[in-house]
Amino acid sequence: MPPNLTGYYRFVSQENMDNYLRALDINVVLRKLVCLLKPDKEIIHTGDHMVIRTITSLRDYVMDFDVGVQFEEDLGPVDGRKCQTTVSWEGDQLMCEQLGEKRNRGWRHWLEGDQLHLRMTAEDEVCVQVFQKVK
């Protein structure tokens, strides 16, 4: 049985965000701005349905999906692309595959105690973020 990820998580740390954004062809000005942001995450996890909100002072990004069902994800607010996205469980990790223009694009969420970990990939770059559960 996969874990229930429901909760509100505050940003703790990140590694390699600039190189990850460069792999997505994000311009240098926007990369610098994004690297300064400290996003929070809010996850509502009800059975196979999930809503993941990434909350920043600049703008929010919302993913609303059913686990195991492919959908077209509009990443316009992120990098102007659309992807065919599938989110599924791989053991205790929530895994997202985003098929489109960029090779090896996707992410994984998993819990370690009361910390939420996020590993994002694009091309050959990996960015890792950590969030602390607050409620």
Automatic annotation (TrEMBL):
List, in alphabetical order, the Gene Ontology terms for molecular function in this entry.
Answer: lipid binding
- InterPro entries membership: Calycin, Fatty_acid-bd, ILBP
Q: Which family does it belong to?
A: Belongs to the calycin superfamily. Fatty-acid binding protein (FABP) family.
Quaternary structure and partners: Monomer.
Q: What protein is this chain from?
A: RET5 protein
Gene that this sequence comes from: Rbp5
